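dumping this here so i dont lose it
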């Protein structure tokens, strides 16, 4: 296990009725800007709960954050923060709203030439507007980490800073009951792949992290299909919500290598073709497992045994079976597992490879050895 320093400052308020806790979580003297997406929070009761909790506060709102938050939209919120003097942000929505709010928090305090450089040039974030969040779609883990992904046209880029970790996050499983089956499936798959990318690398004798990750994988495999079959089961939703947070709050990733290849290639699929983020992951991960089976052999065999109970047959047979069972789980969740499933073909791979090069994604994986040529092989395998 590698050395590490771990801190997560986000306070979690978990359970039914916890939206009311924001009245105590936000300082009373703050002017609060509530940021949300397309307005579903007004039909599922979340908006009313937030409004009640903010009674007595000086607050306003900004709506219209897209499922893949767009820079131009977010810059309108930045302008509002500056002109109206907001000094606290409250994201209400899924990971995209939280990601977008993190960018607003950083961009509102940015002193350089172009706030896009926070993402494009990875210019350091030195000051932010403080923020909290009310999560309504468990998937990304953004509610308790310092990462954010923002799009501008076909460019979908990441930035990270501990300064944009939310001060608090409200996780009420009740808010997820109004999600569509597609949103539920996407959330489960996103959390699953987050876990896999921090787990499926090579052994470093990090037994705690491995067992934590395996517990999350088991939970998502068990509960994900239940969430589709029995959508009103609040206990199932609670376990999924907490799993998604734990998958990317930093805990299972400390002291271990990580391979974000699936995410980086997935970002290009979303940026160029508008495919749901989680659905790009379900397409790319099986191909990564196949192409990188030699480099990941030890962890693939561990995954095969501990997650699926595969202990007989040759190493290759067990790895093949584990990959097939992973694909079967994705299919059970109703998400695509090949490029063909989303009407993409070999001609589209050239576009994706050029986008990877444009964004500097030329040395991916836990070994930094996935070149554009290997990325092409992964995409060809995903056809």
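and the seq i came up w/
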């Amino acid at each position: 296990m590698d050395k590490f320093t771990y801190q997560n400052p986000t306070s979690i308020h978990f359970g039914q009725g916890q939206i009311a806790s924001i009245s105590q979580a936000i300082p009373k003297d703050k002017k609060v800007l509530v940021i949300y997406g397309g307005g579903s929070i007004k039909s599922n009761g979340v908006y009313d709960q937030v409004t009640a909790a903010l009674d007595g506060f000086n607050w306003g709102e900004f709506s219209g954050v897209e499922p893949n938050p767009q820079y131009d939209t977010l810059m309108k919120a930045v302008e509002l923060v500056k002109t109206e003097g907001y000094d606290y942000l409250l994201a209400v929505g899924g990971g995209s709203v939280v990601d977008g709010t993190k960018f607003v928090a950083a961009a509102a305090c940015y002193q350089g030439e172009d706030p896009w450089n926070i993402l494009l040039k990875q210019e350091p974030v030195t000051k932010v507007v403080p923020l909290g969040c009310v999560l309504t779609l468990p998937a990304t883990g953004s509610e308790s980490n310092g990462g954010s992904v923002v799009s501008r046209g076909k460019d979908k880029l990441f930035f990270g800073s501990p300064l944009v970790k939310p001060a608090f996050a409200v996780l009420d499983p009740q808010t997820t009951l109004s999600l569509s089956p597609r949103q539920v499936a996407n959330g489960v798959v996103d959390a699953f792949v987050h876990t896999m990318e921090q787990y499926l690398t090579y052994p470093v004798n990090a037994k705690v992290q491995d067992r934590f990750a395996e517990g999350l994988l088991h939970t998502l495999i068990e509960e994900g299909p239940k969430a589709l079959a029995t959508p009103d089961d609040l206990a199932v939703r609670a376990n999924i919500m907490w799993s998604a947070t734990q998958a990317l709050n930093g805990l299972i990733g400390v002291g271990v290598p990580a391979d974000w290849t699936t995410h980086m290639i997935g970002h290009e699929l979303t940026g160029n073709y508008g495919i749901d983020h989680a659905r790009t992951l379900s397409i790319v991960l099986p191909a990564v497992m196949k192409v990188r089976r030699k480099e990941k052999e030890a962890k693939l065999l561990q995954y095969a045994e501990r997650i699926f109970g595969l202990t007989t047959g040759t190493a290759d047979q067990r790895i093949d079976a584990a990959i097939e069972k992973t694909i079967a789980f994705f299919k059970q969740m109703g998400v695509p597992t090949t490029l063909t499933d989303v009407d993409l073909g070999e001609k589209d791979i050239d576009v994706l490879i050029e986008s990877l090069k444009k964004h500097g994604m030329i040395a991916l994986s836990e070994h930094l050895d996935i070149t554009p040529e290997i990325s092409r092989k992964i995409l060809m395998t995903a056809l």
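The two ends are 36 Å apart (CA to CA).
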